[in-house]
Amino acid sequence: MTARTTPDRCGPKALRPVDLARMAGVSTQLVRDYADAGILPPTPRSPTGYRRFAPVHGRALLAYRALAKGFGPDTARAVMRAVHAGDVPEALTLLDAAHAGLHAQREALRATGAALEAVAGEDPGAPAAPAPRTPLTVGEVAAHLGVRASALRVWESAGLLAPARERGTGYRSYGAADVRDARMITMLRRAGYPLPAIRPVLDDLRDTGGSEALRAALAQRHTDLTRRSRAMLEGAGLLHGYVTEVAEEGEAVAPPSLT
């Protein structure tokens, strides 16, 4: 006669940390870290103190991993914690903010692309369409571009700008080509480009007057944003499935209402 065993709190479908780790392709230690961080719902323990997971924990794990790919680990962690606290509106607010940020990046990218022809078509070695008065001081250039003077100094320190210096005073003196370069840097920074990625764009424009490097940078950025947008969609889909299933099953981690 076979002895009957009494299932623990998670029932006959209890899972071990290694089961969840294999499910998500992560280490068992990472699963434990997720549980401690509130990324997974509350986890009961066996009489000997071992964590006993259930399928609901697996769904939470997969939802978090998908969210992290699109929204980043910080936002994904905050979303899962809000869900497990029963505050779905807060979780949705976090997702909405991330989507708004992505949209803003797309708009900046579109604006940069629209300005590409006018900027790339200028002769790098000769001033075209000069400002009302040249040369300009750093403050005048900053006002002309709508940036801080300190930003221009940072770009100069990074080797992206090299304005001349006035004799005697040592003040920076921006010619038309310097203003054009500063304008290009401004547009790329607003589109989300880090300073190291801007250097080859400026070098290409200065050396050849061509726009291929800039076009390639914009195309790559567009691809990256599309990839992230798809990842956000996938993560939101898994989160919706997780929250809905938990609510339907009446799990303790579910909020009383999704509205």
TrEMBL record:
* Gene3D superfamilies the UniProt entry points to: 1.10.1660.10
Annotated GO molecular function terms are: DNA binding; DNA-binding transcription factor activity
Record-linked CDD domains: HTH_TioE_rpt2
So which domain of life are we looking at? Bacteria
- Per UniProt, residues of the HTH merR-type domain are 20-53, 135-204
InterPro entries membership = DNA-bd_dom_put_sf, MerR-type_HTH_dom, MerR_fam
Keyword annotations from UniProtKB, A to Z: DNA-binding
UniProt keyword DNA-binding, yes or no: yes
According to UniProt, the name of this protein is HTH merR-type domain-containing protein
Species this chain originates from: Streptomyces aurantiacus JA 4570
